């Protein structure tokens, strides 16, 4: 089935460690996104990529890094510089350009907890 | 920059009653507007979207929304709610540059509680 797969679903990180969240899509979408969700905050954009080998910072990029080496993959690394990383992380994708590029679809999310 | 306001953090509705969730946006150009629904611990599912044309749009699960430019609103409605509609609902607007989406701006969500 086509869709967006995030892994792992649950992840625990010790303070000072970097962790990487995986996001893979088989929808042939050009654009991919990472959002962070905190209770009462809604969703906030971390990074996005409209094309392979290119990505842009969103509203809360500090302490995060991404890569886009393949069209179907957009991993997010939460670095030790992120002071409050415990949150629910959502990956999304959309086609690029035109009317078909106007809908963004989401994966099932990954829970990250710092212990 | 665009912004989205969902003025109701929580709404409680009796099963079978009608529902209206409010959404107001601030955006300079013609907005592309969305409603998503999220069950606890899950991703977001698209309910409906407005790009242009008819201002009343139909979505999945019996939901509809009406775009009112004069009020900068995009309220979500359902004539009769079911217990399975209990969830978090998000309104969002998308910004574009160079033909591609720069990402959605979300409201903070409305938590819908269904009473028996």
Describe this structure in words.
The complex is a heterodimer of chains A (115) and B (116). Chain A has strands spanning 4-7, 10-13, 19-25, 31-38, 42-51, 54-57, 64-66, 76-78, 87-94, 105-106, 110-114. Chain A is mainly beta. Chain A starts with a strand and ends with a strand. By secondary structure, chain B is mostly beta strands. Chain B has strands at residues 3-5, 10-14, 19-21, 24-26, 32-38, 44-50, 56-58, 64-68, 73-78, 87-97, 100-106, 110-115. In chain B, strands 2, 5, 6, 10, 11 and 12 form a 6-stranded mixed beta sheet that branches. Chain B has a 4-stranded antiparallel beta sheet with strand order 3-9-8-7, with no helix packed on it. In chain B, a hairpin with a 2-residue loop joins strand 10 and strand 11. Classes of the chains: A mainly beta (115), B mainly beta (116). Chains A and B meet through strand 5, strand 9 and strand 10 of A and strand 5, strand 6 and strand 11 of B.
Give structural attributes.
heterodimer, A: 115 residues, mainly beta, seven-stranded mixed β-sheet, 11 strands, 50% strand, B: 116 residues, four-stranded antiparallel β-sheet, globular
Topology:
The complex is a heterodimer of chains A (115) and B (116).
Chain A: E1 4-7, E2 10-13, E3 19-25, E4 31-38, E5 42-51, E6 54-57, E7 64-66, E8 76-78, E9 87-94, E10 105-106, E11 110-114
Parallel strand pairs in A: 2-11
Antiparallel strand pairs in A: 1-3, 3-8, 4-5, 4-9, 5-6, 7-8, 9-10, 9-11
Chain B: E1 3-5, E2 10-14, E3 19-21, E4 24-26, E5 32-38, E6 44-50, E7 56-58, E8 64-68, E9 73-78, E10 87-97, E11 100-106, E12 110-115
Parallel strand pairs in B: 2-12
Antiparallel strand pairs in B: 1-4, 3-9, 5-6, 5-10, 7-8, 8-9, 10-11, 10-12
């Amino acid at each position: 089935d086509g869709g967006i797969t995030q892994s792992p679903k649950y992840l625990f990180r010790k303070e000072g460690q970097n962790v990487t969240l995986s996001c893979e899509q088989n929808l042939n979408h050009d654009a991919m996104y990472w959002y962070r969700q905190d209770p009462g905050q809604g969703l906030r954009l971390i990074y996005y990529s409209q094309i392979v080998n290119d990505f842009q910072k969103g509203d809360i990029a500090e302490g995060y890094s991404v890569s886009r080496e393949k069209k179907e993959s957009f991993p997010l690394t939460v670095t030790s510089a992120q002071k409050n990383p415990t949150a629910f992380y959502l990956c999304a994708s959309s086609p690029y350009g035109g009317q078909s590029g106007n809908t963004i679809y989401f994966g099932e999310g990954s829970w990250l907890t710092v212990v | 920059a665009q912004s989205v306001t969902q003025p109701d953090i929580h709404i409680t509705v009796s099963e079978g009653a009608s529902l209206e969730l409010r959404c107001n946006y601030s955006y300079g150009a013609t907005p592309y507007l969305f409603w998503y629904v999220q069950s606890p611990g899950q991703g977001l599912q698209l309910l409906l979207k407005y790009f242009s044309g008819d201002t009343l749009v139909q979505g999945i699960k019996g939901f509809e929304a009406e775009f009112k430019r004069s009020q900068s609103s995009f309220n979500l409605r359902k004539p009769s709610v079911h217990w399975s509609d209990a969830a978090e609902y998000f309104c969002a607007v998308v910004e574009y540059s160079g033909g591609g989406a720069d990402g959605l701006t979300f409201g903070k969500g409305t938590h819908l509680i269904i009473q028996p």
